[in-house]
DNA sequence: CACGTCATTTGGATCGATCAAACTCTCAGA
DNA sequence: TCTGAGAGTTTGATCGATCCAAATGACGTG
């Protein structure tokens, strides 16, 4: 294990003071070019790296962003790709991602509170925003830097930077795609009303149909499971639907057992596997924007209030469908 | 933003010295019970939390574990669940997980080197071990604490703690399961020889067949894609196979388009979605064991050299199969 | 009653960086 | 020649915890 190289070692090696080394790294413009070169050479020669702990102690900045890692449920989600993008974008701005877990809003707030005392992350990224999100208001009250991936769905939580993907635009595009294929009776399988994300996605579908003067009555609510998706699809088909737009790939998976003209949401690996047309979120970009909004705020730059990205329809032909006679 | 509470504040409040507060938290046995109570009360009253930075500065311990977040490829992997388990287990031992990305072994080593200089993680968790893994030897040479999830496949990399799931035991169980269903000609679709994981999984299959005196010639190598899985399945079925054990769910997905008697590996969401029987890894436990091995080593306790866990066969009935006439 | 022992508590130094303020030159202008 | 400004560099203090060595106090013993 190489001995720790401190700023004092570099200073000695380059025949300058500690402060000058610090200046070379943090405010190079105040240092004479010749000195700067000499110090940089010393830094390289010794393999010096600033100690995050020491720097944090003095400046109060940790260069850490904290993110909650979500529980995976049925695994048909999008979080892991977002997290990967976040880690990469953060690294590009010299930030690192610190993970934590929580079971609900309340425990997440407790964890955030604890982290603030111990590791003092410079910023937080919240995902899965929802109506009456206690986390956002908690952070906002304390004036702590954070971004949400997911817009604030309640009025009271507005006013913080966020990044989101335009679900309504997505389902609208999906519905138009089905209209283009000649479908006239297109249903929507959603979640229970009241979820911001779900309602938004339903709105896009109904907007597209309304624009054509078509029936927007063919919609049902589910708990999001494939089973309920299948049941809902069954009923909607009986009521005359020939195609279905779904609030998620999970629901779409069930629907696909009833009819092939189905569009899902999130473009999960499952969609790719079974040939389900689905709406893909630009997750790497969403993550990059989150980091951008946060780091702008952290370095005092003016920040965009929010960013709304568009999903992309990924069209596929179903390769798998319900097996009528399950053997083995 | 609540003002920072330091150990000195607590000391003043409880009418003791800083050191006594520190002792209450770190070596309670040297403090008189009554004092201990008084200090703890002060800690609660003020909401004191140790500053990780200050502690690290003095002790050299960061209470951080660093893990590389893998790229997701086709998303049919297991890493996100492992990572979640790791974060939870780490938190239970008062460690936090720090993420980083890397594109290959070399860049991962560079990143680790950099992290060591800056954030000084106390330990590392390496995943996706392989033959001639440069990362493990690099860390071992420097005597840095790390665990791998995945055993060391080369002789030279042995000697560090690891946690792994017994792939051979898994495929052996899967093969026996198929034998129990009456199959006699069971094929194996694997990866190119030379990958430790892949060879191990093939070995379990061949062991089970050999034990019954059956033919172990029905095996092919692929690049792991569903397409090649499908092609391999086609050929093996033509050569007489009635059932197939697969090295991954991805390959199995392709194989399932040829015959329904297929077993995959990893029990990914895709397997659940399409009703693919698959071998599930005990990821939460694997993660917990990784943390255990690491923290044991970090606190000087004797550590188990390694841990080998068994996968579980999750049997399902295919709900989806190849669609003969793809409409829409 | 002085003294050693043990349990408990304390003050000062320290980790490695940055802040704030002071210092040293050099050079232009009075 | 002296002064002042400005560029460039240095010194000392500080962030909040823990290490170390030493002080304090209670208690039993010869």
From TrEMBL, chains A, B:
Pfam families: LacI, Peripla_BP_3
CDD domains reported in the protein's UniProt record: HTH_LacI
GO molecular function, one term: DNA-binding transcription factor activity
Superkingdom of source: Bacteria
InterPro entries: HTH_LacI (IPR000843), LacI/GalR-like_sensor (IPR046335), Lambda_DNA-bd_dom_sf (IPR010982), Peripla_BP_I (IPR028082)
Keywords annotated in UniProt: DNA-binding, Transcription, Transcription regulation
Domain HTH lacI-type: 5-59
Record PANTHER family: HTH-TYPE TRANSCRIPTIONAL REGULATOR GALS, LACI-RELATED TRANSCRIPTIONAL REPRESSOR
Protein name: Transcriptional regulator, LacI family
Native species: Nonomuraea pusilla
